[in-house]
Design brief:
alpha+beta, 14 strands
């Protein structure tokens, strides 16, 4: 299982100057290589084909062998990702403006776009908490980095492969790839159903409720400040908007991490699996009022699900996604199962029109998710019948 750890670099003035000169030059060279790839090979350049016209030129411009190789590979990977997005329909149909715009010109790399390093041009000294990294000014040694003790322990035990040099908001970071061994998934005694929502971000079948009121107030305040800044229409206002957007995204990710960590801890302690609703395409399937559209579109439901999945995998906890249809309208009583929109008279309450079972609507949805997980797990693990 691959995860990443981000550490902050604290270079001195000389070291920072070398990094400031190197990263934009790398991305400028990548843009030139991208133009060559687009001109000669369209969207289907390979590393081997692109190395012939570009490798010697990159070496002549002062890039080391590994740096030149990584620049070419980055360009090829970017076109591979573009083709994958086209196949998946993420850029629309053949006649869509987005797709024509993306395929009509070569890919351009931002001056501060992240660049990949491997163990040949980046080395780590964990005891001194320093790194040695290749730059256009030569190998720069003893650049200090800072991180939490837990992150340092993970780096020492699991770092393997490439790391990305990132320049963001005037600060330097290294994002290292870790190859963590997954524990064996245990056989669950039962399941915890998790219902995701806007008012209540996550509600479990146990009745644990992770409310989103505080987050909603924060996001409303951010929206008001964003509108005030947008009204200025200046260059500095645009830069400030980008900075605030990243801050809001970090805040949402922190909330999702906290919720996922708590749910997985309960599941691991009680030897139960985690089940969530499969919410792919929710924005296209669900119709909400005008004042709810921004909230539905802006909250990262998928991110919370992905955090639950990878944290469950790291803890050896079984994880499954189930059909979300009518989980908030179906009676969870086994002998009833009555499904009707009127079973949920408002957002917070559930009351079965047939048997009278009542309770919080989100908890009922979590119970239905748990019941579907039980059936799905039995079906998935059912032995195949012997061939006749």
């Amino acid at each position: 299982m691959k995860i990443v750890v981000q550490v902050k670099l604290t270079p001195d003035a000389v070291q920072a100057s070398a990094l400031d000169r190197t990263l934009p030059a790398i991305n400028e060279a990548a843009t030139r290589v991208s133009a060559v790839a687009f001109e000669h090979f369209g969207l289907r350049a390979s590393v081997r084909e692109l190395r012939k016209p570009c490798y010697g030129e990159l070496k002549a411009q002062g890039f080391g062998a590994q740096a030149a190789q990584h620049i070419i590979k980055r360009v090829v990977d970017s076109y591979t990702a573009l083709r994958a997005n086209i196949r998946a329909g993420n850029l629309g149909g053949p006649d869509s403006t987005r797709r024509r715009k993306a395929t009509s010109k070569p890919i351009v790399f931002r001056p501060d776009a992240a660049h990949t390093y491997d163990d040949r041009n980046l080395s780590w000294n964990y005891d001194a908490q320093t790194v040695s990294i290749w730059t256009l000014d030569g190998r720069i040694k003893n650049i200090r980095f800072v991180c939490s003790p837990g992150a340092l322990k993970q780096l020492i035990e699991h770092r393997k492969g490439e790391s990305d040099l990132v320049h963001r908001d005037g600060k330097w970071f290294l994002v290292a790839t870790l190859d963590v061994v997954e524990p064996e998934v245990f056989a669950p005694r039962d399941w915890i159903g998790v219902d995701r929502g806007i008012v209540n971000l996550a509600t479990t079948s146990d009745g644990d409720n992770h409310q989103g009121r505080r987050l909603t107030r924060y996001r409303r305040w951010q929206a008001r400040k964003r509108a005030e800044i947008q009204a200025k229409r200046t260059r500095s206002a645009k830069q400030l908007l980008k900075k605030r957007a990243r801050r809001e995204a970090r805040h949402a990710a922190h909330v999702n991490h906290t919720i996922a960590k708590q749910v997985v801890a309960v599941a691991a302690r009680t030897e139960r699996g985690i089940a969530i609703e499969e919410l792919g395409g929710i924005r296209e399937r669900v119709t909400v009022s005008r004042d709810q559209r921004a909230r539905l579109s802006s909250w990262p439901f998928h991110q919370l699900g992905s955090f639950l999945e990878y944290k469950a995998r790291r803890a050896g906890v079984p994880f499954i996604e189930v059909d979300p249809a009518y989980t908030s309208q179906r009676c969870p009583v086994p002998w009833c199962g009555h499904t009707e929109r009127a079973n949920r008279p408002d957002r917070d309450r559930f009351c079965c029109r047939r048997c009278g079972f009542a309770g919080p609507a989100d908890v009922v949805a979590g119970i239905n998710v748990r019941q579907r997980a039980r059936s799905a797990w039995v079906f998935v693990n059912m032995p195949n019948p012997a061939p006749t």
